[in-house]
Amino acid sequence: MTTLRPTLGERELALRTRARRVIPGGMYGHMAVEAFSTAHPQFMVSGDGCRVTDADGREYFDLMCGWGPVVLGHRHPGVAAAVADQLSRGDCLDGTSPLAVELAELLVDTVPSADWAMFCKNGTDATTTCVTIARAATGRRKVMVANGAYHGAVPWCSLRGAGVTDEDQAHLVHFEYNDLASAEAAAAAAEGDLAAIIVCPMRHDIRRDQELADPAFARGLRALADRTGAVLILDDVRCGYRLDLGGSWEPLGVRPDLAAWSKAIANGQALGAVTGIEALRDAARSVYVTGSFWYAAVPLAAGLATLTELRKGTALPDMARTGTRLREGLAAQALSHGFQIRQTGPVQMPVLYFAGDDDVRLGTAWAEAAVENGVYLHPWHNWFLSAAHTDDDIEEILTRTEAAFATVARM
Amino acid sequence: MTTLRPTLGERELALRTRARRVIPGGMYGHMAVEAFSTAHPQFMVSGDGCRVTDADGREYFDLMCGWGPVVLGHRHPGVAAAVADQLSRGDCLDGTSPLAVELAELLVDTVPSADWAMFCKNGTDATTTCVTIARAATGRRKVMVANGAYHGAVPWCSLRGAGVTDEDQAHLVHFEYNDLASAEAAAAAAEGDLAAIIVCPMRHDIRRDQELADPAFARGLRALADRTGAVLILDDVRCGYRLDLGGSWEPLGVRPDLAAWSKAIANGQALGAVTGIEALRDAARSVYVTGSFWYAAVPLAAGLATLTELRKGTALPDMARTGTRLREGLAAQALSHGFQIRQTGPVQMPVLYFAGDDDVRLGTAWAEAAVENGVYLHPWHNWFLSAAHTDDDIEEILTRTEAAFATVARM
To answer: Does the entry feature the keyword Transferase, yes or no (chains A, B) (predicted)?
Structure first.
């Protein structure tokens, strides 16, 4: 691996020029790199373990893990073998793969709040299905959502206004994360029409510190749902499989009625899932949700291999250990360079901000310097660790982030 | 291949028992087989060309092609090689695959109405994105939709009521397919607030004859969109890549402003796309749509291999020829057994109903007999041919449908 990348590569630049002609703005969604960096490559061609390679052949230690999905590392041998094996037989068939039953059984066995499971493709498919089931079950319409929380990128939950009508979000009622009084007020405002409370396991909104859920807040939402007859939906799309295999609020002793899963559940193959309690089985049966690729065998095979590997029990503790070392190392480096920083959220899903850097200008410069030194991370979206990050990888990453701190210290 | 299947297999039955415990209703969406048959297997394990195999090892000639996606046949060598090659390098990375640019370029080169492209996973992602772009472009809210038309399975376009609120569909304005006067009336009802007209290339609603678009109707919708400043969206999810590579209304000389694609565009890998005209590029850039798996390399590699193969020019004429032979053969068989049948829609996407069979009871019995004789087809959803169906396959399929007609003739 080379260590200094002063400019974007030639192939990257050529691809961006071509992309601007045939893709609006040159890219869309969270992969539109120009929205957050002048140094990050937009295009990548390969991955191996905890490393990714861009179009110019530059290799990076990967602290985004495909923005979450890659929990075991790129091209994990066990998952790759399951994928290759199923591909050799078939993928998108006229009927469901029996692997859907196997994976549903394994989820029910792994997730205490799950009596059943359904599969889909996107995280947004899963959150939308949860809300639809909750409305079908309760015959009510209102859905409580935390201010600024991301539950997908379709009109009913979009955080951006373009193309969204007032009616798309007419039944959303907002509360403040970790503020139970605001949640009580939101429930009161819903006046007997409250179908669901949808909530992430922690506050992981972009461009701000992450906040772990206050256990009293989580328990309070559970009690509020019980008291009002609303469905408690845990949006575990981003956190799922990194904090606790049984669901990210298991350590708090709070179990949702429905949970939305995606990202990491098939180590990068396109898969989402909804799990739910027995009392919501009939409602789940009553809604019509489907997609051409939802029953395909290969992502289900990947999902089964991923959960089987994770259930061996070493991956999550490994990520906690390496994440802790990364956090400690970054803290020491910042201190030694005279920077005050904030590292928030669980160590497996870190984010780093500089004190007083409200516009994230310094944070962006540091992230750009990290990329130029061969560590791919984000200035204002949480990062992700994987089980493929070894202790040695973390040390090497820290060597490079040290260089990034040195760069911004010279600015 | 065996020729008679009097009962569901043991593994099928065992899987259904297990599925009922861990999946609501034993299955969801269009794969919930008990909603349409007592004889169709719900579970499938492999596919090869135009054949699929169920959990009990029973092989079927495939006339559903994974409900559309498999346009070149299961495990098509060219697509399989592209998938294996990309898998050997990586799939879900931190940046977009350069293949997104290549595929966007190839779509722009292939589809006359496409000046740009964006990629997603589900057909519903594509239709939802089209509507969002249209609203962003026009600043208007109303969307004209044909009665009974399927544009996806999420609340804004759902055809079922469970879990759907009035507000989800508050801005839909309905018209009757192939009835231009009803479309004019719907546009008038939208009173200057018409953002879009979304329409399928033909009427392919379930449980009824398919109707090709009347060219005057298609041209009339185009003129109506132009006159009102609305965006004409062609939902080519189901028909795309089977009727005309340039878009299913190219033969009519009618070009949409936006088109939604999915199903067949990656021969079974999860991929959707939106294509659009230059005038909508900025609006497409302004909406925030994204998904964790939308930028993954493997489905894009499959999409590139699929379109490259189709552009060689033989697949579509082949499907037209084999579809014509299938239609002629089925017509002759029905006649010889004294049945009046209706075969409607393009020959590559056939459906068959018996005269006077309004509850599709006879049609279901015939479809079940077909399955028992080793041909997988549907009683009331259109079928799909693929380029893997040879003339000999069609003759063998007809031998088996002859047996199915004989079975229902004895009833």
So the answer is: yes
